[in-house]
Amino acid sequence: METQSSRAPLAIVQVAMADEAAPFLARAEGPAGEGERVGQAVLRHVVLDGLPVLLVHSGIGFVNAASALTTAIVRAREAGGGHPLVLSAGTAGGLGAGVAAGDVVVGSAYINIDADARVFGYRLGQVPGMPAVYDADERMLAAVAALAPDAGAGWALRTGPIVSSYSFVTADRAAIARAGFPDAAAVDMESSAIAQVSYSNGLGFASVRGISDLATDDAPTDHVDNTALTAERSAEIVLALIRAVS
């Protein structure tokens, strides 16, 4: 018998860490269960605010993110969801001018800053044979303006490019990232990989990242201190975007 949580998902929501999954599991209608473990990933069909979602806890990094999303797309299609939205949720380091800890950035474009095949005529950040950048789903970007928090909320909802690296970025690598990608608003370790898999499968994608740190030498401590708050804000915006475009 089909259960509510096994309905074809409107969206695949992917997080890297348990702390980033927690706000979604807290909202789940009914028990979320242990989920399906595939490699390092855990996949759960859940209902969030009445929305059927495939929640994916992938583990950290490009390979974990890409392999988990590939499995999730297969599972979504098996459940009858041929073209779900894909959203990456969780935390990131702030890079852009004016971006503050506690803000939320919805990526307008996604770039792998560790890709460098310029000797073959590709742009810095471009994986050979793939686009130079992966653009966010236009419907989700258009919905962001209506979701801005009240002026007194103490944090801002922003859009801008999100870049991704194999490394957790502190001051030295942040300087390199800003030099190569001066428009970047935030940096994480998964979004460009998720964007590439989404692009390859013809699925609309957006990454929604709470800014836990500012990619300084204090970033590791700041990230730990701010993860719960910024993951919660990311989850709020993710669910609002799914409602807005579904």
Question: Could you explain how this protein is built, in words?
Answer:
It is a single chain. This protein has helices at residues 18-27, 62-78, 138-144, 171-180, 191-200, 219-245, and strands at 11-15, 36-38, 41-48, 51-57, 85-94, 104-112, 134-135, 157-164, 186-188, 205-213. It contains six helices and ten strands; from the N terminus they run βαβββαβββαβαβαβα. Helix 1 packs parallel to helix 6 (219-245), helix 2 packs parallel to helix 5 and helix 3 packs across helix 6. The chain is globular, with a radius of gyration of 17 Å. The chain has a five-stranded mixed barrel with strand order 5-9-8-6-10, surrounded by four helices. The protein is an alpha/beta fold and 246 residues long. Strand 2 (36-38) and strand 3 (41-48) form a beta hairpin. Pathway: Amino-acid biosynthesis; L-methionine biosynthesis via salvage pathway; S-methyl-5-thio-alpha-D-ribose 1-phosphate from S-methyl-5'-thioadenosine (hydrolase route): step 1/2. Residues 12-243 form the Nucleoside phosphorylase domain.
Radius of gyration: 17 Å
Strand order of the largest sheet: 5-9-8-6-10
Query: What is the helix content?
Result: 25-40%
Sheet/helix structural class? alpha/beta
Which stretches of 5+ consecutive residues score pLDDT under 50?
A: 1-5
Number of helices: 6
Q: What is the end-to-end distance?
A: 25 Å
Overall 3D geometry? globular
| Percentage beta strand | 25-35%
| Largest sheet entry | 5 strands, mixed, barrel
The SSE order reads EHEEEHEEEHEHEHEH
Q: Please report the total strand number as a whole number.
A: 10
Overall mean pLDDT score?
94
Keywords: Amino-acid biosynthesis, Glycosidase, Hydrolase, Methionine biosynthesis
Organism: Herbiconiux gentiana
Pathway: Amino-acid biosynthesis; L-methionine biosynthesis via salvage pathway; S-methyl-5-thio-alpha-D-ribose 1-phosphate from S-methyl-5'-thioadenosine (hydrolase route): step 1/2
Domain Nucleoside phosphorylase: 12-243
